[in-house]
Design a protein that fits this description.
- By secondary structure, the protein is an alpha+beta fold.
- It has helices at 17-28, 55-72, 101-119, 138-142, 149-152, 194-204, 253-266, 282-292, 299-309, 320-323, 325-328; strands at 4-7, 10-11, 33-41, 46-53, 88-97, 123-127, 174-178, 183-189, 209-214, 217-221, 228-234, 239-245, 271-277.
- It folds into two domains: 4-178, Formiminotransferase-cyclodeaminase, Chain B, domain 1 (2-Layer Sandwich), CATH 3.30.990.10; 183-328, Formiminotransferase, C-terminal subdomain (Alpha-Beta Plaits), CATH 3.30.70.
- The chain is built from eleven helices and 13 strands.
- α1 (17-28) packs antiparallel against α2, α2 (55-72) runs parallel beside α3 and α8 (282-292) crosses α9.
- The longest helix is centred in the middle third of the chain and has 19 residues, at 101-119.
Length: 329
Protein backbone atom coordinates (compact mmCIF):
# COMPACT_ATOMS: atom_id res chain seq x y z
CA UNK A 1 0.00 0.00 0.00
CA UNK A 2 1.33 3.43 -0.90
CA UNK A 3 2.05 5.81 1.94
CA UNK A 4 0.02 9.02 2.07
CA UNK A 5 1.01 11.73 4.56
CA UNK A 6 -0.70 15.03 5.26
CA UNK A 7 1.21 18.26 5.91
CA UNK A 8 -0.53 21.29 7.47
CA UNK A 9 1.83 24.28 7.61
CA UNK A 10 0.53 27.48 9.23
CA UNK A 11 1.92 30.69 7.76
CA UNK A 12 1.90 34.06 9.52
CA UNK A 13 0.14 35.85 6.67
CA UNK A 14 -3.60 36.10 6.14
CA UNK A 15 -4.08 39.51 4.55
CA UNK A 16 -2.04 39.41 1.35
CA UNK A 17 -3.40 36.84 -1.14
CA UNK A 18 -0.45 37.43 -3.45
CA UNK A 19 2.03 36.30 -0.81
CA UNK A 20 0.02 33.16 -0.06
CA UNK A 21 -0.24 32.34 -3.77
CA UNK A 22 3.53 32.54 -4.15
CA UNK A 23 3.97 30.17 -1.19
CA UNK A 24 1.38 27.66 -2.38
CA UNK A 25 2.74 27.81 -5.93
CA UNK A 26 5.95 26.31 -4.51
CA UNK A 27 3.92 23.36 -3.21
CA UNK A 28 2.24 22.90 -6.59
CA UNK A 29 5.65 22.58 -8.27
CA UNK A 30 6.26 19.21 -6.62
CA UNK A 31 4.96 16.10 -8.39
CA UNK A 32 3.03 13.50 -6.36
CA UNK A 33 1.74 16.21 -4.01
CA UNK A 34 -1.90 17.34 -3.97
CA UNK A 35 -2.85 20.73 -2.53
CA UNK A 36 -6.21 20.25 -0.77
CA UNK A 37 -7.06 23.42 1.09
CA UNK A 38 -5.96 27.02 1.69
CA UNK A 39 -7.68 28.90 4.51
CA UNK A 40 -6.73 32.48 5.39
CA UNK A 41 -7.96 34.60 8.30
CA UNK A 42 -7.42 38.36 8.28
CA UNK A 43 -8.01 38.81 12.02
CA UNK A 44 -5.58 36.05 12.94
CA UNK A 45 -3.33 37.17 10.05
CA UNK A 46 -2.64 33.52 9.41
CA UNK A 47 -3.12 30.95 6.66
CA UNK A 48 -3.50 27.20 7.13
CA UNK A 49 -2.53 25.12 4.10
CA UNK A 50 -3.27 21.40 3.72
CA UNK A 51 -1.60 19.09 1.21
CA UNK A 52 -0.98 15.35 0.94
CA UNK A 53 1.54 13.17 -0.83
CA UNK A 54 4.21 10.49 -0.63
CA UNK A 55 6.99 10.98 1.97
CA UNK A 56 9.88 12.28 -0.21
CA UNK A 57 7.61 14.57 -2.23
CA UNK A 58 5.76 16.03 0.72
CA UNK A 59 9.02 16.82 2.51
CA UNK A 60 10.29 18.63 -0.59
CA UNK A 61 7.06 20.64 -0.91
CA UNK A 62 7.18 21.62 2.77
CA UNK A 63 10.80 22.78 2.46
CA UNK A 64 10.04 24.94 -0.59
CA UNK A 65 7.02 26.50 1.14
CA UNK A 66 9.01 27.28 4.31
CA UNK A 67 11.80 28.78 2.20
CA UNK A 68 9.42 31.02 0.26
CA UNK A 69 7.57 32.10 3.42
CA UNK A 70 10.89 33.09 4.99
CA UNK A 71 11.67 35.23 1.95
CA UNK A 72 8.27 36.97 1.74
CA UNK A 73 7.01 37.36 5.33
CA UNK A 74 8.67 39.84 7.68
CA UNK A 75 7.87 38.84 11.25
CA UNK A 76 9.16 42.14 12.63
CA UNK A 77 6.10 43.76 11.01
CA UNK A 78 3.57 41.03 11.79
CA UNK A 79 0.46 41.70 13.87
CA UNK A 80 -2.42 39.28 14.38
CA UNK A 81 -4.75 37.64 16.86
CA UNK A 82 -3.19 34.16 16.84
CA UNK A 83 -0.05 33.16 18.79
CA UNK A 84 2.95 32.81 16.46
CA UNK A 85 6.70 32.48 16.54
CA UNK A 86 7.73 32.59 12.88
CA UNK A 87 6.86 33.10 9.21
CA UNK A 88 6.12 29.40 8.98
CA UNK A 89 4.81 29.13 12.50
CA UNK A 90 4.23 25.40 12.67
CA UNK A 91 4.54 22.53 10.18
CA UNK A 92 3.16 19.15 11.29
CA UNK A 93 3.08 15.82 9.42
CA UNK A 94 0.09 13.51 9.91
CA UNK A 95 -0.21 9.83 8.88
CA UNK A 96 -3.24 9.40 6.60
CA UNK A 97 -3.04 6.15 4.62
CA UNK A 98 -0.48 3.34 4.74
CA UNK A 99 1.90 5.53 6.76
CA UNK A 100 2.89 5.27 10.42
CA UNK A 101 3.64 7.88 13.03
CA UNK A 102 7.25 6.70 12.78
CA UNK A 103 7.28 7.70 9.10
CA UNK A 104 6.06 11.18 10.06
CA UNK A 105 8.62 11.55 12.85
CA UNK A 106 11.41 10.64 10.43
CA UNK A 107 10.14 13.20 7.90
CA UNK A 108 9.80 15.93 10.53
CA UNK A 109 13.35 15.48 11.80
CA UNK A 110 14.82 15.35 8.30
CA UNK A 111 12.94 18.51 7.29
CA UNK A 112 13.98 20.27 10.51
CA UNK A 113 17.65 19.52 9.78
CA UNK A 114 17.34 20.86 6.22
CA UNK A 115 15.52 24.02 7.26
CA UNK A 116 18.02 24.74 10.01
CA UNK A 117 21.12 24.05 7.92
CA UNK A 118 20.08 25.43 4.53
CA UNK A 119 17.80 28.33 5.51
CA UNK A 120 19.40 29.43 8.80
CA UNK A 121 16.04 29.35 10.60
CA UNK A 122 15.96 28.08 14.22
CA UNK A 123 13.77 24.95 14.38
CA UNK A 124 12.07 23.29 17.34
CA UNK A 125 10.62 19.77 17.18
CA UNK A 126 7.26 19.09 18.85
CA UNK A 127 4.65 16.41 19.59
CA UNK A 128 5.76 12.90 18.52
CA UNK A 129 8.91 14.26 16.83
CA UNK A 130 10.10 16.05 19.99
CA UNK A 131 13.61 15.14 21.16
CA UNK A 132 13.17 17.08 24.41
CA UNK A 133 10.13 16.22 26.60
CA UNK A 134 9.81 19.89 27.60
CA UNK A 135 9.13 20.75 23.95
CA UNK A 136 6.39 18.23 23.25
CA UNK A 137 3.59 20.81 23.48
CA UNK A 138 3.42 23.54 20.87
CA UNK A 139 2.11 26.10 23.35
CA UNK A 140 5.18 25.62 25.58
CA UNK A 141 7.54 26.30 22.68
CA UNK A 142 5.54 29.28 21.46
CA UNK A 143 4.97 30.91 24.87
CA UNK A 144 5.98 34.58 24.71
CA UNK A 145 5.77 34.40 20.91
CA UNK A 146 8.02 36.15 18.40
CA UNK A 147 8.39 39.19 20.66
CA UNK A 148 10.63 37.36 23.16
CA UNK A 149 12.31 35.00 20.70
CA UNK A 150 15.58 36.97 20.60
CA UNK A 151 15.96 36.69 24.39
CA UNK A 152 14.78 33.07 24.41
CA UNK A 153 17.45 31.98 21.93
CA UNK A 154 20.17 33.19 24.30
CA UNK A 155 19.07 30.66 26.93
CA UNK A 156 20.73 27.25 26.92
CA UNK A 157 17.42 25.47 27.55
CA UNK A 158 15.95 27.04 24.41
CA UNK A 159 18.76 26.20 22.04
CA UNK A 160 17.01 25.08 18.82
CA UNK A 161 16.92 21.40 17.89
CA UNK A 162 18.27 22.43 14.49
CA UNK A 163 19.57 25.65 12.99
CA UNK A 164 21.47 28.51 14.62
CA UNK A 165 20.77 29.74 18.16
CA UNK A 166 20.63 33.16 16.59
CA UNK A 167 17.67 35.49 16.19
CA UNK A 168 16.35 35.55 12.62
CA UNK A 169 14.48 38.87 12.67
CA UNK A 170 12.64 38.30 9.39
CA UNK A 171 11.68 34.61 9.55
CA UNK A 172 11.57 34.09 13.32
CA UNK A 173 11.62 30.38 14.21
CA UNK A 174 9.69 27.36 12.97
CA UNK A 175 8.16 24.45 14.88
CA UNK A 176 8.10 21.15 12.99
CA UNK A 177 6.57 17.91 14.21
CA UNK A 178 4.43 14.81 13.80
CA UNK A 179 0.98 14.33 15.29
CA UNK A 180 -2.39 12.66 14.90
CA UNK A 181 -5.23 14.36 13.04
CA UNK A 182 -6.21 17.62 14.69
CA UNK A 183 -9.45 19.55 14.24
CA UNK A 184 -9.07 23.32 14.35
CA UNK A 185 -12.49 24.39 15.62
CA UNK A 186 -13.53 27.97 16.40
CA UNK A 187 -16.70 29.21 18.09
CA UNK A 188 -17.62 32.86 17.54
CA UNK A 189 -19.75 34.68 20.12
CA UNK A 190 -22.12 37.63 19.72
CA UNK A 191 -20.11 39.61 22.23
CA UNK A 192 -17.17 41.99 22.48
CA UNK A 193 -16.19 40.77 25.94
CA UNK A 194 -12.68 39.40 25.33
CA UNK A 195 -12.21 38.61 29.03
CA UNK A 196 -15.27 36.36 28.92
CA UNK A 197 -13.91 34.49 25.87
CA UNK A 198 -10.59 33.98 27.65
CA UNK A 199 -12.37 32.74 30.76
CA UNK A 200 -14.39 30.22 28.73
CA UNK A 201 -11.19 29.00 27.07
CA UNK A 202 -9.69 28.46 30.53
CA UNK A 203 -12.71 26.43 31.60
CA UNK A 204 -12.78 24.06 28.64
CA UNK A 205 -9.10 23.47 27.80
CA UNK A 206 -7.24 20.55 29.34
CA UNK A 207 -4.56 22.77 30.90
CA UNK A 208 -7.25 24.81 32.68
CA UNK A 209 -6.51 28.23 34.13
CA UNK A 210 -4.64 29.87 36.98
CA UNK A 211 -6.88 31.29 39.73
CA UNK A 212 -6.13 33.60 42.65
CA UNK A 213 -6.92 32.04 46.05
CA UNK A 214 -5.95 34.99 48.22
CA UNK A 215 -2.82 36.50 49.81
CA UNK A 216 -1.03 36.46 46.47
CA UNK A 217 -1.35 32.70 46.13
CA UNK A 218 -2.40 31.08 42.86
CA UNK A 219 -3.41 27.59 41.83
CA UNK A 220 -4.04 25.94 38.48
CA UNK A 221 -7.52 24.51 38.07
CA UNK A 222 -7.76 21.79 35.40
CA UNK A 223 -10.19 22.30 32.54
CA UNK A 224 -13.29 20.29 31.65
CA UNK A 225 -12.02 18.48 28.57
CA UNK A 226 -9.02 16.33 27.74
CA UNK A 227 -7.38 16.81 24.34
CA UNK A 228 -8.57 20.40 24.00
CA UNK A 229 -6.34 23.44 23.55
CA UNK A 230 -8.16 26.77 23.59
CA UNK A 231 -7.60 30.52 23.69
CA UNK A 232 -9.95 33.50 23.71
CA UNK A 233 -9.38 35.85 20.78
CA UNK A 234 -10.65 39.39 20.28
CA UNK A 235 -11.87 39.83 16.70
CA UNK A 236 -13.51 42.76 14.97
CA UNK A 237 -17.03 43.10 16.41
CA UNK A 238 -17.04 39.75 18.21
CA UNK A 239 -14.90 37.39 20.26
CA UNK A 240 -13.87 33.85 19.52
CA UNK A 241 -12.90 30.70 21.38
CA UNK A 242 -10.21 29.26 19.10
CA UNK A 243 -9.55 25.57 19.71
CA UNK A 244 -7.51 22.58 18.65
CA UNK A 245 -9.19 19.23 19.32
CA UNK A 246 -6.33 16.76 19.36
CA UNK A 247 -8.43 13.61 19.82
CA UNK A 248 -11.97 14.09 18.52
CA UNK A 249 -12.91 10.49 19.30
CA UNK A 250 -12.54 11.15 23.03
CA UNK A 251 -13.57 14.82 22.99
CA UNK A 252 -15.87 15.39 20.00
CA UNK A 253 -16.82 18.79 18.61
CA UNK A 254 -20.43 18.73 19.78
CA UNK A 255 -19.43 18.14 23.41
CA UNK A 256 -17.25 21.25 23.42
CA UNK A 257 -19.77 23.30 21.45
CA UNK A 258 -22.63 22.49 23.83
CA UNK A 259 -20.63 23.42 26.93
CA UNK A 260 -19.59 26.73 25.39
CA UNK A 261 -23.22 27.38 24.45
CA UNK A 262 -24.44 26.73 28.00
CA UNK A 263 -21.74 28.85 29.64
CA UNK A 264 -22.52 31.70 27.23
CA UNK A 265 -26.25 31.44 28.01
CA UNK A 266 -25.50 32.12 31.67
CA UNK A 267 -24.25 35.53 30.57
CA UNK A 268 -27.11 35.93 28.05
CA UNK A 269 -24.60 35.69 25.19
CA UNK A 270 -25.48 33.83 22.00
CA UNK A 271 -23.27 31.96 19.58
CA UNK A 272 -22.78 33.76 16.28
CA UNK A 273 -21.29 30.82 14.36
CA UNK A 274 -18.63 28.15 14.42
CA UNK A 275 -16.06 27.11 11.85
CA UNK A 276 -13.57 24.43 10.92
CA UNK A 277 -10.17 25.75 9.86
CA UNK A 278 -8.67 23.39 7.32
CA UNK A 279 -10.09 19.91 6.84
CA UNK A 280 -11.97 17.43 9.01
CA UNK A 281 -12.46 13.63 8.97
CA UNK A 282 -15.99 12.63 7.96
CA UNK A 283 -16.27 10.46 11.07
CA UNK A 284 -16.05 13.53 13.30
CA UNK A 285 -19.11 15.09 11.64
CA UNK A 286 -21.03 11.80 11.71
CA UNK A 287 -20.40 11.52 15.47
CA UNK A 288 -21.85 14.99 16.01
CA UNK A 289 -24.79 14.31 13.70
CA UNK A 290 -25.60 11.13 15.67
CA UNK A 291 -25.50 13.10 18.91
CA UNK A 292 -28.16 15.51 17.68
CA UNK A 293 -30.20 12.91 15.76
CA UNK A 294 -29.54 9.35 17.02
CA UNK A 295 -32.11 7.70 14.70
CA UNK A 296 -30.80 9.20 11.45
CA UNK A 297 -28.91 6.71 9.24
CA UNK A 298 -27.93 8.69 6.15
CA UNK A 299 -24.38 10.07 6.21
CA UNK A 300 -25.46 13.03 4.07
CA UNK A 301 -28.27 13.90 6.49
CA UNK A 302 -26.08 13.43 9.57
CA UNK A 303 -23.48 15.82 8.17
CA UNK A 304 -26.21 18.37 7.40
CA UNK A 305 -27.58 18.05 10.92
CA UNK A 306 -24.14 18.55 12.48
CA UNK A 307 -23.53 21.63 10.33
CA UNK A 308 -26.88 23.19 11.26
CA UNK A 309 -26.82 22.35 14.97
CA UNK A 310 -23.31 23.72 15.49
CA UNK A 311 -23.86 26.66 13.09
CA UNK A 312 -20.86 25.61 11.02
CA UNK A 313 -22.25 27.45 8.02
CA UNK A 314 -23.12 30.64 9.88
CA UNK A 315 -19.82 32.43 9.34
CA UNK A 316 -18.56 30.90 6.10
CA UNK A 317 -20.55 28.40 4.04
CA UNK A 318 -19.62 24.82 4.89
CA UNK A 319 -19.22 22.75 1.71
CA UNK A 320 -18.58 19.07 2.58
CA UNK A 321 -16.75 18.40 -0.70
CA UNK A 322 -14.23 21.10 0.21
CA UNK A 323 -13.90 20.40 3.94
CA UNK A 324 -14.01 16.61 4.47
CA UNK A 325 -10.57 15.12 3.90
CA UNK A 326 -11.77 11.76 2.59
CA UNK A 327 -13.59 13.56 -0.23
CA UNK A 328 -10.52 15.59 -1.12
CA UNK A 329 -7.90 12.85 -1.44
Amino acid sequence: MRKIIECVPNFSEGRNPGTIKKITDEIKKVKRVKLLNIESDRDHNRTVVTFVGKPPAIKRAAFLAIKKAGELIDMSLHKGGHPRIGATDVCPFVPIKGATMGDCVKLARELAREVGQKLGIPVYLYEEAAQNPARKKLEDIRRGEYEILAAKLKLKKWKPDYGPAKFNRKAGATVIGAREFLIAFNVNLKSRDADFAKAVAGIIRESGAIREIGRGQKIRIPGVFKFVKAIGVDLQGKVQISMNLTNYKITPMHAVYEIIKRIAELKKIKIHSSEIVGLIPQDALLMSGKFYSPKTKSARELIGIAVRQMMLGGFKRFIPENKIIERMI
